[in-house]
């Protein structure tokens, strides 16, 4: 049932191109527009929404953090992202014009369920992004957009995460489409790029051997840091979470712009630091700032592991290890940048002799608060 792979996690990482393609299937029409019939919230209500609030836990929360960048950019609707476990305990401001998006692979996470119940009590509409048909969270929501990742067995979430991202992009683009923002042309172009992204994920998977080798060489380390900016920041958080849960290593993700505000004090000789570099096209200011961050940490002895777009030559002099990813529009980069981090964590776990599919102390679905 592991399809020739040693672990479900490896199988599920390999299935990501198909999972991503399946989540897009039937949702883009012949004219390149989105048809999200499942989102049964009437268009006139979607036009009235004045706030989006995303609630989720763990990896799904990281998908939500990335969704915020996409939703605010393409729709100009303010978007908050909150850990489901914190949400209802802080008396959040919600009303009938708020759209709450609950993201959950299992559809059974108790904290996320309680958050959506709280939102519905305030009269807000709830849209679930979920991978498990007929589970509790979609049953209790106003609408559901299913991710079609297929069953995810390994405790550490991989293909569900990528499909959650795709679903979030679809919602963001759809809201932009029905509300008619000034980004109309960009929205059409991104829908086109999304329809090719499965092939880009495939290309990343084909180049992972050096990442596995690198991971094995770091098996005796205690700490790995992850840095990113913009949508690369949640990718850094996800890379760190994967490493904690699988390799049982101390791993932390930081926004690269925060380095000088504390984390740079952690840098010491030979400390592995993974840096997710934004595209040098598009938001090139951020790219240049991150290149100087890499210089700064390397000057202090860090071993830099740099994830950068093909053709980005500026990073080469400062990268002790360079992991190439295909060029994508900035907002879509997490779909390709996360994959090497999943492979990295999985290989480190194996090298350290850990149980990859069933890490200690963790359960696949957390049905208690
Ligand atoms: C991490 C992981 C967890 C889940 C979290 C939410 O790899 O699997 O952090 O993402 O428990 O679970 P769902 O998505 O089922 O609500």
From TrEMBL:
Enzyme class: transferase
Residue ranges of every copy of the SIS domain listed in the record: 42-181, 214-359
GO molecular function, one term: glutamine-fructose-6-phosphate transaminase (isomerizing) activity
Domain of life, source organism: Bacteria
Keyword set, alphabetical order: Aminotransferase, Cytoplasm, Glutamine amidotransferase, Repeat, Transferase
E.C. no: 2.6.1.16
Coiled coil location: none
Major site of localization recorded for this protein: cytoplasm
Catalytic function, reaction form: D-fructose 6-phosphate + L-glutamine = D-glucosamine 6-phosphate + L-glutamate
Catalytic site positions: 364 (for fru-6p isomerization activity)
Localization in the cell: Cytoplasm
Subunit structure: Homodimer.
Task of the protein: Catalyzes the first step in hexosamine metabolism, converting fructose-6P into glucosamine-6P using glutamine as a nitrogen source.
Protein's name according to its UniProt entry: Glutamine--fructose-6-phosphate aminotransferase [isomerizing]
């Amino acid at each position: 049932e592991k399809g020739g792979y040693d672990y479900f996690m490896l199988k599920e990482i390999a299935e990501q191109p198909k999972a991503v393609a399946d989540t897009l299937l039937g949702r883009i029409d012949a004219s390149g527009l989105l048809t999200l019939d499942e989102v049964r919230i009437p268009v006139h209500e979607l036009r009235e929404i004045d706030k989006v609030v995303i609630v989720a836990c763990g990896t799904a929360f990281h998908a939500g953090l990335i969704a915020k960048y996409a939703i605010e950019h393409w729709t100009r609707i303010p978007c908050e992202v909150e850990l489901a476990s914190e949400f209802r305990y802080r008396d959040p401001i919600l009303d009938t014009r708020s759209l709450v998006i609950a993201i959950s692979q299992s559809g059974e996470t108790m904290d996320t369920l309680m958050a959506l119940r709280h939102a519905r009590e305030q009269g807000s509409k709830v849209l679930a992004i979920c991978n498990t048909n007929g589970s509790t969270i979609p049953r209790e929501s106003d609408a559901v957009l299913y991710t079609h990742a297929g069953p995810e067995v390994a405790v550490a979430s991989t293909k569900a995460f990528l499909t959650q991202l795709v679903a979030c992009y679809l919602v963001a683009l759809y809201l932009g489409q029905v509300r008619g923002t000034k980004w109309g042309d960009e929205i059409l172009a991104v829908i086109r790029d999304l329809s090719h992204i499965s092939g880009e994920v495939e290309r990343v998977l084909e180049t992972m051997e050096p990442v596995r080798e690198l991971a094995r060489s770091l098996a005796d380390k205690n700490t790995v840091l992850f840095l990113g900016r913009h949508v690369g920041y949640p990718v850094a958080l996800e890379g760190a979470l994967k490493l904690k849960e699988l390799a049982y290593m101390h791993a932390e993700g930081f926004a690269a712009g925060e380095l000088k505000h504390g984390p740079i004090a952690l840098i010491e000789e030979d400390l592995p630091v993974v840096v997710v570099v934004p595209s040098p096209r598009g938001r090139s200011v951020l790219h240049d700032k991150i290149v100087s961050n890499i210089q700064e940490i390397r000057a202090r002895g860090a071993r830099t592991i740099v994830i950068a777009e093909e053709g980005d030559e500026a990073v080469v002099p400062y990268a002790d290890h360079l992991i190439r990813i295909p060029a994508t529009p900035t907002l879509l980069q997490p779909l390709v940048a996360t994959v090497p981090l999943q492979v990295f964590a999985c290989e480190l776990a194996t090298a350290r002799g850990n149980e990859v599919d069933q890490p200690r102390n963790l359960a696949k679905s957390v049905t208690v608060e």
